[in-house]
Structure formats: structure tokens, C-alpha cells
Design a protein that fits this description.
The structure holds two protein chains of two kinds. By secondary structure, chain A is mainly α. Chain A has one domain: MetI-like (MetI-like fold, Orthogonal Bundle), CATH 1.10.3720.10. Helix content of chain A is about 75%, strand content about 0%. Chain B has two domains: about 170 residues, 3-Layer(aba) Sandwich (Rossmann fold); about 60 residues, no CATH class. Chain B has eight helices and twelve strands. In chain B, the strands form three sheets. A six-stranded mixed sheet of chain B has the order 8-9-10-5-11-12, sandwiched between helices. Chain B has a four-stranded antiparallel sheet with strand order 4-3-6-7, covered by helices on one side. Chain B is globular, with a radius of gyration of 18 Å. The chains are: A mainly alpha, B alpha/beta. Chains A and B meet through α8 and α9 of A and β8 and α3 of B.
Chain lengths: ~260, ~260
Amino acid sequence: MKKHFVGEKAEKTVYAILAIATFFLAWAFITTFTAAGETTPGPVEVLKLLVDSFFEPIGRFTLYGHLYYSIRRVLVGYVVAAVLGIIVGIAMGTSRYAEAIIKPIFELIRPIPPIAWIPLVILWFGVGELPKYAIIFIGSFTNVTLNAYTGAQRVDPTLIGCAKMLGTSDRDIFLRVVLPSSLPQIFAGMQVALSTAWMAVLAAEMIGAQEGCGWIILRGSDTTNIPLVLVGMVVIGVVGLLLATIMRMAERRLCSWNRMDV
Amino acid sequence: MEQNGRIDHSIISLEHVSKRFESAGRVKEVVNDVSLEVKENEFVVLFGPGQCGKTTMINLIAGLEPASGGTVTVDGKKVEGPGADRGVVYQTTALFPFCTVMGNVEFGPKSRGIDKKTRRERAQYFINLVGLEGFEKSYPNQLSGGMRQRVGIARAYCNDPKVMLMDEPFGHLDAQTRYMMEEELEKIWQKEKRTVVFVTNNIEEAIYLADRIILLTNCPTSIKEEYIVDLPRPRSYVDPEFLKLRKTILDNTEETL
């Protein structure tokens, strides 16, 4: 049985901080002492702009406003994708017919990047918030579905037989055996999907957006404001990290039975 | 009980049951024309060489596999699929890893819509009976092999089945734990009388627990012999009568090929 000591956790945190500090130092070093500095702003400049943008608006909003819009878009698209993905994935994993019908279509659509859907999504949903949700949805749906599918497929058939012997209805077997059995796998998929959903925010905000973290990058790109581009990138990186951490905490809580070191 | 014009005291009845598996065009005969009657509250052990089809017989009674021929009847009803009137204890324990000990034990009653207070009380009774008081909130992966199988037994009992089907429940345990569990099981069975069909390939276990031992042949399995064990309980593994029976049965047991 593996044991986690408090010391080990603190040690990990120290390493994480050191690694990030080294990254910023390397960035600062390269932009100060090499030719890269002529085109690329250093970390100090970017961080200064980042802090400023919490108070000074970029376009219509300060950074708070942009964060609000981006996170809202990602969460709406992501939650819909997660719920549908879990249902479709488990259906694929438990029913031979569902698998035979859905899987080929899925494998066909899967490699198409979210950005490629932009023209169609605009045709279908216009340029409001809906197409942005749709792009995020496309960016995260496949990962949730495929993982839920794998999870449901791997459910121990003895457990299903056992539940049947205990008089459990099919509906309860789904809710109380298949679903919890697949949960670790579902979480793995949701974790990846949250990253890809957040990645798709740039594509989503290419559709007539006036705000958002992706839009900051586009705005910086349009106005050749490279520090602004980097601010957008840093914000996306940090928020992505926070979202992933929250997901991991949720997983720890819900799948505690799956770990030895409870 | 009067049935089909004949007196029938048995709760489990197998009539000319056979089972064939077909895969890739090849037919494998596993159970060959087995007829068996088990009386209410009787402890019957199916004893036979490894791989002879004992587990298949349990699965046929459980309804987890359909019989290829003949009929299986439990408590007057023909077995046509899984059902809560038969409790199964698995060799692999088959506990729900995502449920606590309490969650596992109350799984059956919860499935059958029994209200929380009643089923909790009942589950607690069986958790205590198998000696797991204080482990209600533990998950299976936090328990030892013997403790897990105790949960398996409590879970089967808690659902109040008519008959218990135990498929080599102690097969994965070390020798020491195995002896302990055999004693425990006997105590539990004395307290909570139930019809038990118990599968094993361990002769001491068979004689220690059984009212009646059904000796099976190699695959395709059929009944070779029956032995009534009327030694007083709890039995001693070194009692001369015990050892004599052990020799008689072993001499008659086919060797696994």
C-alpha cells in the first residue's frame, strides 16, 4: 500500500514552484540577452500588462469581464458535452447495437478539429453565444464519449450478474453498477475534455466575439500587440491549470474507492 | 408440499440437467444429465475435481446460464434467469468496489425498494454477524481477502434468499484464513439456517461443512456418488470418523487430467 506523507506533498509543491520559476527566468534570460527580445516581450512586460488589464479595460471589458465570458462559454459547452457524452458513451459500451451504429460515425467525425466547424456553426446558429457553445461542445464531446465508452465496456460482467442475482432492475444496474464502475474512466475523459474545451475557446471566440480570453489573443494578433497576445496565452494557461485542479479534487472525492491510499 | 401429484420436500430440484457450450463450431459438454434434490435447510456440497463443471452447476441453479436440457426448479418455480430468491457468494467475492461494506451488504434490499431504516438495521445485523462491526464505511480494497468474503456472505444473507449458492468462496484464501472462515460459516449457518449449495475441491472443507456431499465426475460432469455426513457439529478435522470418510471419498474421486 502506498502512503502519501505531508512532506512528500510539500516537496512536490516546491518542485512545481521551482519549475515554473525556472521557466520564467529562462524566458526573461532569452528575451533580454538574445535577438528574440527584439520581437518577443519578456515576462516582466507581459505580467505588468496582465496586472494592468485587471483594472484597465481591453476593448469593452477589464480582464474580469473577459474571464467571465470565456469561462461561461466553456462551462456551458462543456457541461452539455459531458452529460451527453457520458450517456452516449455508456450506451455505446453497453449495447452492441448502439456501438455498431454510433461508433463508425464517431470515428469519422472525431479527427475533424473544432476550428473547421466554424463556418457551419455560423450558418446553423448565427453569431451569438450559441455557436460559441457549439464549438466548445465539439471540442470536448469526443473525449468524454470515448472514455465513458471504454469505462462502460470494461465493467466486470460478474458485477452485473451479481446485481441481477440481488434483484436489481436494469435501470438500477445502469445507475448503481455501470455508471459508478465507469466513473474513473469517465473522469479521465472529463479531465482531458476540460482541457480541450478550454483550448477550443480561441476557436469559439473567432465567431463574432467582442470579449473573452481567446478574443484577447485575436485582438492582439490583429493589432500586432504581441504582449497582449501573450497575456491571453498566460491567462488561458493559468485558468486551464485551475480548472484541471478543481476536476482532480472532484475526482478524488467521487472515486476515493479507486485509490489504495484513502 | 404437494406438486404434480407427488410429495416434494425439496427446495432445489435438478431434473436431467445438462449443459453444452458451443464456440467456434465446437461443442463442449460440461454437465451431463444431473438429477439432484436439495432439501430445505440442507447444506449440500458439490465436490469434484478441478474444472469439472461445478461452477457451471451453480450458474445453472442461479439462472446465470440457461440449461441446455432438463429443468432446474427452486422453491417450486422453474429457474429462467437470475433472481433474488437465490443468493450467490462468488469465489472472486464480486463486491462492488465503489460501495462501502454497508453499501455492499444493503445493495440487495435497496434494489428491492426496502426503506432505509429497515434495510440499514438488517444490514448492520449481518455485518455484526460476520464480525465486521466497525468496518461499515470501509471500501473493499481496504479489506483483507477473508474480510472481503465475509462481506460477500453478509451481502448474500442480507437479501434474505431462499437458497444460498456458494462457488468456492474460500478458494482464494490462505490455509489459515480458510479454516477460520469455514468455522465462521458454520456458525453463521447454524444461526441463520438456510439451504446451501456449496462448491469446493477441498475435501476437508467439504466434510467439515456438509450434511451431504455430492461427488462429481470429471468433465462432462455427472453425479458419481453421494455421502451423508452425520458427524456431530462442530466437527474436528482429526476425528477418526472424519478421516475415514475423507479416505473413502478421495479413493473414489477421479483425478484431474
